[in-house]
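Blinded run. Sample ID left blank on purpose so nobody reads anything into the name before looking at the predicted structure. Input follows.
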Amino acid sequence: MTLLTTWSDSDPGTIVRRTVDTSEIAAALAPAGVRYEQWALRAGLSENQESAAVLSAYRAEVDALVAAEGFASVDVVGLRPQKDLGWRLTAKAERRKFLREHTHDDDDEVRFFVAGAGAFYLHVDREVHAVLCEAGDLLTVPRGTKHWFDMGAAPSFTVIRFFHEEDGWIGNFTGSDIASNYPDFDALVAARVAMAV
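Blinded prediction complete.
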């Protein structure tokens, strides 16, 4: 289940809001211009499904979003745990890059989670919202919004990415170390599990 956790940006030790209710999550994020919704999952897609099959399975939703928002390109990316050292080094480098607070000048960051999970942290109006996204979640982070992304120590996810610009992902890093002050992806997963017990 999706989890939203909110803290003050000056007090990462005190939780202001924690919920798994999808309506509450959407309502809490809407004032920041963040779009959160859930799409129905497609049965029969494996973790290692080819990109074309993933896009085909979600064709109606993808086409509707592209038509509504004018996206120039759509792709599918994912990471899965592997045993080879090269993958671990690549995943570690990718995690470090996205763990730094950044913005995007020319594009929203739009992701639909086909499988697995990841956490977006949104730094908005003196609050930090951590959105632990799972399969079925669509999240849009508006351009100019300070944020970072954590895929965890053992990344496992597949996402459909939407871009207005052909150049794809271009981050402007703020230089802030704020991300190091908040619980990481693995801590959020543990909190969500504890809530379910």
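Unblinding after everyone has recorded impressions. The two ends are 13 Å apart (CA to CA).
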